[in-house]
Amino acid sequence: TIVGGRTAACYPSMSEHHEMAGLRYTFCYCEENVHQLCRALVAGGSAEAECFAVWCSNAAQKVPFWNRRDGGCVVWDYHVFCAVRRPAGQQGAASTLVYDPDAPLLPFPCPFERYCAEVLRNG
User: Fold this and answer.
1) DSSP states of 53-66 as a string?
2) Could you tell me which of 86, 65, 87, 49 has the C-alpha nearest to residue 10?
3) What is d(CA 9, CA 12) in angstroms, rounded to the nearest whole number?
4) Backbone Cα Rg of the chain
5) Distance CA 74, CA 66 (A)
6) Residue 3, Cα to own-chain centre: how many angstroms?
7) What gap in Å lies between CA 69 and CA 14, rounded to an integer?
């Protein structure tokens, strides 16, 4: 079990995509949401894909996350999202997809490069 808390207010961000997919979601518990999501993906996925829980934070414990429902940014002490890496194969080049229930304006899943550009923004 991962123990931690938010230093900033949590904002509801469930989208219809996640509700329709039947995913478990607990408000303000990204680590638990991702744990459950990874379990579901591994149980129903292919053996070639690798599933990761990615923990984002920094020394200041103030990390901005963009692409919120209101178009703005929220600053959290940390955030966890799920990344699934698929190797190159008959379907084409290797790819990494991000599953983040707290990024409601992005596709679910979202290509890793787009997620980084729109949510994690450098600078």
Assistant:
1) EEEE--TTS-EEE-
2) 65
3) 10
4) 14
5) 7
6) 18
7) 9
Which token pair is 92?
A: 């084409």
Residue 116 carries which side chain, given as an amino acid letter? C
Q: What pLDDT tens digit does each residue of the chain (123 aa) get?
A: 222 333 233 333 344 444 435 677 887 899 999 998 888 888 876 656 789 999 999 999 998 998 776 678 889 999 999 999 888 775 667 789 999 988 888 898 999 999 999 998 865
Cβ atoms 81, 26 nearer than 8 A: no
């923004």: which residue's tokens?
121
The residues annotated as belonging to the active site are 30, 79, 100
φ and ψ at 71, to 5 degrees?
85, 0
- Residue 97: strand pairing partners: 84, 111
Q: Which helix (DSSP H) or strand (DSSP E) does residue 96 occupy?
A: strand 95-99
